[in-house]
Design a protein that fits this description.
The protein has a single domain (2-17, 33-199), classed as Porin (Beta Barrel). The chain has helices at 2-5, 7-18; strands spanning 33-42, 56-68, 72-85, 89-103, 108-122, 127-130, 136-139, 144-158, 167-179, 188-199. With 202 residues, the protein is mainly β. It starts with a helix and ends with a strand.
Length: 202
């Protein structure tokens, strides 16, 4: 985890050196690279922003702007990621969201997104099955597929207006529901709290 966190300052240094390059007129900063580290939680019902205990995960994604105004941006995102919750599950996910982002003149921004996705969850501990001899043996965990519906609120800061760096940092709260969930409940409410960086390459 410490090694992964070193990526963030490295990205800042790289972006700072590249910020002086000229950007052709009319560019919308399409397909920026977004990296987040997040905490995953399960709660019924959701009881707010949960930061403890830590169940780590990361995501990598990009977005495309349908409309990019002076302050507002209407966009579609595509994000994939992984999380490990030692009490609940290990999971891989792929999601897409439609969103709107509004940025103030000095760089502060907020955005709202709604989306859907696919999740493949694995048991957090070894799985056993009963064999023909009446004994339990270790079984291969093939995971369980599911679908998610999600929303997210984010607030962050874009360094480009004041500093000229094509980079943003942000905090995002992302609640979502998963279905099917388990034998007791067909729907499972969950949440992710993201801390991320977005780099605009072109």
């Amino acid at each position: 985890m410490k090694r992964a966190l070193m990526i963030i300052p490295a990205l800042f240094l790289w972006v700072g050196s590249a910020a002086g390059q000229d950007v052709p007129a009319g560019k919308k900063w399409q397909f920026p690279l977004e990296l987040t580290f997040f905490n995953h939680s399960v709660s019924m019902p959701l009881d707010g922003i949960i930061l403890s205990p830590i169940h780590p995960g990361f995501s990598l994604g990009t977005e495309y702007a349908y409309k990019n105004g002076r302050r507002g941006r209407i966009f579609q995102s595509l994000v994939g990621g992984y999380f490990y919750n030692k009490y609940n599950a290990k999971g891989l996910f792929l999601q897409t969201s439609a969103g709107y982002r509004y940025t103030l003149g000095f760089g502060l921004f907020g955005d709202l997104t709604l989306g859907i996705g696919y999740i493949h969850a694995f048991h957090p501990r070894p799985v056993y099955k009963l064999n023909a001899g009446g004994e339990y043996e270790r079984a291969k965990d093939k995971g369980k597929p599911g679908f998610i519906a999600l929303g997210a609120l984010a607030i962050g800061y874009d360094f480009r207006p004041k500093v000229g760096w094509p980079v943003s940092v942000f905090f995002r709260f992302q609640p979502f529901i998963q279905t099917p969930y388990n034998l007791d409940s067909s729907i499972g409410p969950q949440a992710m709290v993201h801390f991320g960086i977005r780099v605009k390459f072109w």
